[in-house]
UniProtKB/TrEMBL annotation:
Origin organism lineage: Eukaryota, Fungi, Dikarya, Ascomycota, Pezizomycotina
Name this polypeptide is given: Uncharacterized protein
Keyword Metal-binding among record annotations: no
Record's compositionally biased regions (Polar residues): 79-96
Species assigned in the record: Cytospora chrysosperma (Cytospora canker fungus)
Cleaved signal peptide residues: none
Length: 293
């Protein structure tokens, strides 16, 4: 057989036409670990109890107590620093206070702010007086380990978020993201062969972790599932109910299962328009009534 021909080629006699083989999807780095071992189980129990404590907080719990409860999930070894940080804790609502130091909305720049840890210092676009101490996370939230979960303090996460994280790979959520209700973020996987997956029979690691990154300004719709090794580019939107199994580039809208790019958002795209805007609760309760008359 001609070495230039292959079984998957589309060849015509006397022609050099060949079918282009699609490029393989890049595979993120996977790190195996013995999830069934005692120290891993103890770490999961610790995190589960910390999540229970956070989920039991009342809605009007002081911000200092919410900060302590959150840091027990993602930063359990820093009790001394935690008490210091919470002394001057800043609530998420500070982002919406009007004033000269009000942080600006997410805007595209050449060098987007990289995802940060929940306790990172303020950036040039915000001040210590207005930057929240921790992200605003509506309970309940469920996390497996918490030890490598990094969520920027300007991010909002709605109810029933499930993060199946690992101690071998980071889960990173950048600045000013909006995570809808019922979102599942998975950074853990297992071998598909039972003989390799069953640790107590094989004696080998039956779990692996791969990094998940949600960059700045991303909106993840309700019920989205994000699989291990995925990066979602800055300012993109993932439609409700989508399954994200590969990287999504910046500034686009992706939907479906698996998620596919529908279009890119750029300066030529028309801005959203509305019939009216309610600036107060009173205005909101009056809106639309004229349509009923």
């Amino acid at each position: 057989m001609d070495k230039n021909l292959s079984n998957d080629g589309d060849h015509t006699s006397g022609s050099k036409k060949t079918r282009k083989v699609p490029s393989p999807i890049p595979v993120a780095k996977r790190i195996a670990f013995m999830g069934g071992n005692a120290d891993f189980r103890e770490a999961r129990i610790r995190c589960a109890l910390a999540c229970e404590e956070y989920n039991d907080l009342k809605e009007d719990t002081p911000v200092e107590d919410r900060v302590k409860a959150w840091l027990r999930i993602v930063d359990p070894d820093n009790e001394t620093n935690n008490s210091t940080r919470s002394t001057s804790a800043v609530d998420f609502s500070s982002l919406f206070n009007r004033g000269p130091n009000r942080p600006s909305a997410a805007t595209p720049v050449d060098n987007d702010t990289p995802p940060v840890t929940p306790t990172a210092p303020a950036t040039a676009s915000s001040t210590l007086a207005t930057r929240p101490t921790i992200p605003y996370i509506k309970k309940p939230i469920y996390i497996d380990y918490g030890l490598r979960v990094r969520i920027a303090p300007t991010t909002f996460i709605n109810r029933n978020c499930l993060i199946l994280d690992t101690p071998v790979a980071d889960v990173v959520i950048g600045e000013k993201c909006s995570i809808g209700p019922g979102v599942t973020i998975i950074s853990v996987g297992h071998p598909v062969k039972f003989e390799e997956r069953c640790e107590f029979e094989s004696g080998k690691a039956g779990s692996w972790g791969a990094k998940v990154v949600i960059e700045d300004g991303v909106w993840v719709g309700a019920g989205v599932t994000i699989l291990p090794g995925v990066t979602i580019g800055s300012y993109s939107t993932i439609g409700a109910g989508s399954l994200v199994n590969r990287d999504i580039p910046p500034r686009c809208v992706a939907t479906g299962s698996p998620a596919a790019i529908r279009y890119f958002v750029n300066d030529k795209k028309a801005s959203a328009t509305f019939d009216e805007t309610a600036h107060t609760l009173e205005d909101a309760l009056k809106a639309g009534y004229e349509d009923l008359n």
